[in-house]
Amino acid sequence: MTTTCALPAMYSCGHKLDDGDSFLGLLESPCHASSDRELLQRQMAQDGYLFLRGCLDKEEVLTARRHILAQLAAEGQLDPSAPLMSAKPKLGAKLFFQPELAQKNNPPLQLLLYHPQGNLMRFFSSFLDGEVRHFDFTWLRCISPGPATPSHCDIVYMGRGTRKLYTAWVPLGDVDFKMGGLMVLENSHKNERLQNTYGQRDVDTYCSNRPDDPARTASGLNGWLSEDPNHIRHSLGSRWLTAEYRVGDVVVFCMDLVHGGIDNRSDRIRISSDSRYQLASEPVDERWIGENPPGHSLAGKRGRVC
Ligand SMILES: O=C(O)CCC(=O)C(=O)O
Ligand SMILES: [Fe+2]
């Protein structure tokens, strides 16, 4: 077990994460250069994630970062007196989820995440041992100083196709502990009780036999597992794991792994993307496919008797 005595205080959704080696630890990095599929798959089955240090080309990541920051600057969201690449927000700017900056007019990010010969797509073809497809929707996050994403599993947002679907979380810039990045809950993907309850949820369903069910029209309802990271960690009995991320790193994780964000307590915007990959031969969740994926809109709602 990696010792955490040097870790600074970290917060999620305003809660200070319980510290000490039994509660907080560091992500382990496998030898990513390994093209040993079986080894990586074993590791994924065991840990629920792969921390791939330096998997991406740094220049490509920085080009995507520059492009996004130029978009934010054009929208007037940045401090004009600070260098562009420092991602310093203008006073009072409140940014969080910015998928529109990823969908249109962002060739550098599209290349980085989806080019068939790019490092990420090649990693997934090798890891999944076949032709890979990605979701067309990209979750781009430009998180200004403040609270982070609450704990959840991705399956509740994208579980209508295969469960053999993977998220790639890509920091688009260095992310230190103060800026806060992804945290994952150790071994949570093996918790059967969680999988049989929360893990069966689909945030876009409503009760068709209840005409007044608010879920008919609300978007992305009920996806969070908890806004108290210590409570969920305590009830699942494991540790939160995180890292200081560098340009080029990727964390790949499975749909059942509980994860969330660490609050951004720096004075810069934290930029990252999350994108999804699966075998082309497996069924796909149509909410996230196409030029304008319907996502959690009305078009993606499904009724069920409840
Ligand atoms: O970056 C974050 O704050 C959350 C990331 C996340 O939920 C994901 O990658 O699925
Ligand atoms: Fe997520």
Strand tally is 14
Secondary structure tally, helices: 8
Order of helices and strands: EEEHEHHHHEEHEEHEHEEEEE
How far apart the termini lie comes to 45 Å
Unreliable residue runs: none
What is the share of helical residues? 10-25%
Shape: globular
CA-based gyration radius? 19 Å
* SS-derived structural category: alpha+beta
Largest sheet geometry: 6 strands, antiparallel
Based on the structure, what is the oligomeric state of the protein chains? single chain
- Beta-strand residue percentage: 15-25%
Would you mind describing this structure in some detail?
The longest helix is centred in the first third of the chain and has 17 residues, at about 60-75. The protein is an alpha+beta fold. About 40% of the residues are buried. It contains 8 helices and 14 strands. The mean pLDDT is about 90. It has helices at about 35-45, 60-75, 100-105, 105-115, 120-130, 155-160, 190-195, 230-235, and strands at about 10, 15, 25, 50, 130-135, 140-145, 165-170, 180-185, 205, 240, 250-255, 260, 270-280, 300-305. The strands form 4 sheets. Strands 4, 5, 6, 7, 11 and 13 form a 6-stranded antiparallel β-sheet that branches. A 4-stranded mixed β-sheet has the order 3-10-8-12, with no helix packed on it. Helix 2 packs antiparallel against helix 4. The structure holds 2-oxoglutaric acid (AKG) and fe (ii) ion. The site of fe (ii) ion has 3 residues, from loops.
